[in-house]
Design a protein that fits this description.
The structure holds two protein chains of two kinds. Helix content of chain A is about 30%, strand content about 20%. By secondary structure, chain A is α/β, with parallel strands linked by helices. Chain A has one domain: Aldolase class I (TIM Barrel, Alpha-Beta Barrel). Chain B is an alpha/beta fold. Chain B has six helices and 16 strands. Classes of the chains: A alpha/beta, B alpha/beta. At the A-B interface, strand 5 and helix 7 of A face strand 14 of B.
Chain lengths: ~300, ~270
């Protein structure tokens, strides 16, 4: 895709050809989409969470569409790190983009083991550490405890030189405390937000719509929450952030950049428009061209807040 | 064949009844490769809501066009059903496994309820009349709810049941099947294969009949679906106890399954649409 606007994005040493990344979960291992879209156009691909062992996932129903969002209870269904390396990574290496592997463990040892195995492989540019899956027992325990986060990131920092990105959950009292703990342990950046706890009820039989009652809420409804969490993290840390939450068009992307995200991830919206990367890139180029913006990254953190209203 | 993203154009629309619309959509790339039992994943509108596409089993393929039967059950289906001739509709397809090749000597009993008629209609239409040994049973709530467009030849051929008895057999389509078996209209040989598609209670009610008469069967199911291509894992259904994997994906492993592969009691019943 040739254009006059510089779309490149940066997260420390990590470079992206544009700020649009496919979020973990909805895009599988990307191969699923390769018949439908040109995956090379993505600034980056974040894989479905990879756990130590293969996981079958949660009992259905796993998806409920609500008026403005989507509830999911997938439960980290994935092939496990060994099959990921054997079956999924070879394809990802053929895509001309930045590849981030999302890693999820059930204790510190598992995270260390997964990252150690992945670190022997080529074709991985960074790790996104998932400490906040809302859909498994104890899934949020690490992600909502600053001490555990510090311990985990410190251990992972010792075993890999690749960039580590911590995916932050909004389901905590103070997201800044978690971010600071990770920063002290040597994290390279953050991605935020993971899904928000949510539920829906079927009034016909008075049963929860999701088998596991509570799931992770995503989609357009959560964008304002994600922007607020990004702003909160921006107040306590200058590390780069990838914004996530309800992004479905260029306007949404630009909001995240202005509040201070260096790049963004698109998740739920990909299910409606698998080729959303091309749609949004064109919108971004049109926006920047019409306003003589030569470098999209110049917009990062340009939010104008009057001092008097700062809390 | 791999699925395609195709912008189809509506070339015919028929309001079958108040909450049911028949759409013929010009989509040559999908039409060329589609098999009976496969589905298309249809985007509802061009904005960011509703979030999910809606899956529709193909009712038929007519040259370069695919036929859809759209029951209005929520916001997304209402948007799709409101499409007018000339409108564009964003489709992904063909998706799913479809029906396996049918052994020509084996008679097939097609049991359908409501819009579950769609995949079976396509399959039935693909077969030459000489290849179709069996019966097409079509259940509806009432006479005015027969889910077929005006032109469908199936109107003349289907054995119809209505819950209120206003047309055909008075009762459910499963009760109709049982009566046909008892009256030997269907011998056990003849009913050796059951192909079914309809509401979950209908599918569950069929299971004891299959077991009692030792019928084998295939069932096409509908579930809330995310990506439609196996990436999001959202449309998983539970498998029967002895199966190697506890879940199968409706979009990739289905939507057509062998009856014995699924745990029908755990099949989600409410295909909720926001």
């Amino acid at each position: 895709m040739s254009h006059l606007v510089d779309l490149t994005a940066r997260l420390g040493t990590l470079e992206f050809k544009n700020p649009l990344l496919a979020a973990s979960g909805t895009y599988g291992y990307a191969q699923e989409y390769h018949h439908l879209v040109n995956l090379d156009h993505w600034g980056g691909l974040v894989t479905k969470s990879v756990t130590l062992h293969q996981r079958d996932g949660n009992p259905p129903p796993r998806l409920v569409e609500t008026e403005y969002g989507l509830l999911n209870s997938i439960g980290l269904a994935n092939v496990g790190v060994h099959r990921f390396i054997e079956e999924k990574l070879p394809f990802l290496k053929t895509v001309d983009t930045t590849v981030i592997v999302n890693v999820a463990g059930f204790n510190l040892t598992e995270y260390v083991e997964i990252v150690s195995l992945l670190d022997k492989e080529d074709g991985i540019d960074a790790y996104e550490i998932n400490v906040s899956c809302p859909n498994v027992d104890d899934g949020c325990i690490i992600g909502s405890d600053a001490t555990l986060v510090h311990e985990l990131i410190s251990e992972l920092r010792k075993i890999t030189d690749r960039p580590l990105i911590l995916k932050l959950t909004p389901n905590v009292t103070d997201i800044g405390v978690i971010a600071k703990a990770a920063e002290r342990a040597g994290i390279n950046g953050f991605s935020l937000i993971n899904t928000i706890y949510g539920m829906a009820v079927n009034l016909e039989d008075k049963k929860p719509m999701l088998k596991r009652v509570i799931g992770g809420y995503s989609g357009p409804a959560i964008k304002p929450i994600a922007l607020a969490k990004l702003w909160e993290v921006r107040q306590v840390s200058s590390l780069p952030v990838i914004g996530i939450g309800g992004i479905s068009n260029a306007h949404d992307v630009l909001e995240f950049l202005v509040v201070g995200a260096s790049a963004v991830q698109v998740g739920t919206a990909s299910m409606r428009d698998p080729n959303i990367v091309d749609t949004i890139l064109q919108e971004l180029i049109d926006y920047a061209s019409s306003r003589n913006i030569a470098r999209l990254a110049d917009l990062i953190g340009t939010l104008q807040v009057s001092e008097s209203v700062l809390i | 064949m791999p699925p395609e993203l195709e912008s189809g154009e509506i070339i015919y629309r028929e309001q079958v009844k108040d909450n049911l619309v028949f759409l013929r959509c010009l989509a040559p790339r999908i039409a060329e490769n589609a098999l009976p039992g496969q589905f298309v994943h249809v985007r509802a509108g061009s904005g960011s809501l509703p979030i999910l596409r809606r899956p529709y089993s193909l009712f038929d393929v007519d040259g370069d066009a695919v036929d859809l039967l759209v029951a209005i059950v929520g916001r997304g289906s209402a948007i799709i059903a409101a499409s007018q001739v000339g409108d564009k509709v964003d489709l992904i397809g063909p998706l799913g496994n479809g029906f396996p090749p049918h052994p020509p000597e084996t008679p097939v009993m097609m049991i359908t309820g409501g819009v579950g008629v769609a995949p079976m209609h396509f399959l039935w239409h693909r077969w030459q009349p000489s290849e179709f040994h069996g019966k097409f049973l079509l259940g509806a709530s009432t006479k005015t709810a027969i889910p077929l467009p005006k032109t469908s030849p199936l109107r003349e051929i289907a054995v119809i049941s209505t819950d209120d008895g206003t047309l055909g057999y008075h009762g459910t389509v499963v009760e109709l099947l049982q009566e046909m078996i008892e009256k030997s209209t269907v011998t056990e040989d003849e009913g050796a294969l059951i192909y079914a598609c309809g509401p979950v209670p209908m599918i569950r009610a069929l299971m004891p009949v299959l077991i009692r008469h030792n019928f084998r069967g295939l069932v096409s199911i509908e579930q809330t679906m995310g990506c439609g291509i196996g990436a999001c894992q959202g449309c998983a259904v539970a498998t029967a106890k002895d199966k190697p994997s506890p879940y199968l994906l409706t979009c990739l492993d289905g939507p057509v399954f062998r009856f014995e592969d699924l745990d029908l009691e755990r099949l989600p019943e409410h295909n909720h649409e926001s």
